[in-house]
Write a structure and sequence with these properties.
The chain has 13 helices and 12 strands. The protein is an alpha/beta fold. The strands form 2 sheets. It has a 7-stranded mixed β-sheet with strand order 7-6-8-9-10-11-12, with helices on both faces. Strands 2-1-3-4-5 form a 5-stranded parallel β-sheet, with helices on both faces.
């Protein structure tokens, strides 16, 4: 071997580790996250926890591209198309509305949606057991639990007569939203409650919504499920406290922050399960054959300290219904 050949071989050998490292970096599975809000809510944090539990670490064996919609539905299609252009291996979507945009953007890239309300009714999938197409994920049983929330609120407040329902138009598909409103109206009628529906299209509408609720002299407020309202949980609890309004929520995070009560599925747990779907897809599973998962458990959480501050005398038998009581 002459000197020139030796130098050439040595340079090639020295460059090989760098080339291999670059290839490994390029080969990291790429997850695109489409979030309708401006930041990560507790559900999304549950997804990251799920990835960690499955052995994934961002920048080590997984790469993540995030896109935020700032609650502007007109941006969802653009953001979804951007993730498709990046050639992500899977798109993770927060809730139903941006999921529709993602499905319109691609029929080939797998899509995993965390916290859907009624994915069959909203025409995102064919069935829960066999979704078909390229989309799967988890559902929190959107319209199905609304009547139970009204019942629990009525049981806690024997003198309840006027209830305001705060809702986010367009939070989910048309079928789901109509179903939620229909369930709310039917529950109120069955319990002989006067119901006022108060819309909030975005975070900027929340102050005005509570002013409208106060003007109506509602005895309590119930929040219909919405990723936007969930993302604003701290602020909503503060607004309810300022108005001295007992409130029923759909997730325990509200109650942990001082809200009165909640009934529903754990959003972080639903998103943690969505991470399992992503793991299976990255290992070769077909999203069309991955069942959409329903909640393994529904939890009723009550904040007794808040009840006392509101002057509510909660019956002992009602306390026995709670899965968790915050003192």
């Amino acid at each position: 071997m002459n000197r020139r050949e030796f130098i050439s071989l040595s340079c090639a050998a020295a460059a090989w580790p760098l080339a291999t490292g670059a290839q490994q970096k390029r080969k990291l599975p790429l997850i695109g996250i489409l979030n309708p809000g401006a930041s990560d809510n507790p559900g999304v944090l549950g997804f990251y926890k799920g990835l960690h539990e499955l052995g994934y670490t961002e920048g080590v064996n997984i790469a993540i591209e995030r896109r935020y919609g700032d609650w502007r539905a007109d941006r969802f299609k653009e953001l979804a198309a951007d993730l498709v252009r990046l050639k992500v291996d899977v798109i993770v979507v927060v809730s139903t509305s941006p999921a529709r945009a993602a499905k319109q953007a691609t029929s080939t890239v797998p899509i995993v949606v965390g916290g859907m309300a009624d994915p069959v009714g909203d025409d995102l999938i064919i069935s829960l057991s066999r979704p078909g197409g390229n989309l799967t994920g988890t559902t929190f049983l959107g319209p199905d639990l609304i009547a139970k929330r009204f019942e629990l609120l009525k049981d806690a407040m024997s003198g309840l007569s006027r209830v305001a329902a705060l809702w986010h138009p367009g939070a989910y598909g048309k079928t789901t939203m109509e179903g939620m409103l229909r369930e709310a109206q039917a529950a109120a009628q069955m319990l002989n409650l006067q119901l006022r529906l108060v819309p909030a299209h975005g975070p900027d509408d929340l102050d005005g919504a509570f002013l409208a609720i106060a003007k109506e002299r509602a005895d309590a407020v119930i929040l219909l499920p919405s990723p936007m309202l969930f993302g604003e949980h701290k602020r909503l609890v503060e607004l309810a406290a300022k108005s001295r309004l007992p409130a029923m929520y759909a997730a325990r995070e509200f109650v942990l922050d001082g809200g009165l009560m909640s009934y529903g599925a754990s959003q972080p747990d639903l998103f943690r399960r969505a991470a399992t779907h992503v793991d299976k897809i990255l290992k070769g599973a077909n999203p069309a054959e991955l069942p959409v998962e329903q909640p393994a458990k529904l939890e009723f959480v009550l904040n007794l300290k808040t009840a006392r501050e509101l002057g509510l005398a909660i019956p002992r038998e009602f306390l026995l219904l709670a899965d968790e009581i915050i003192e």
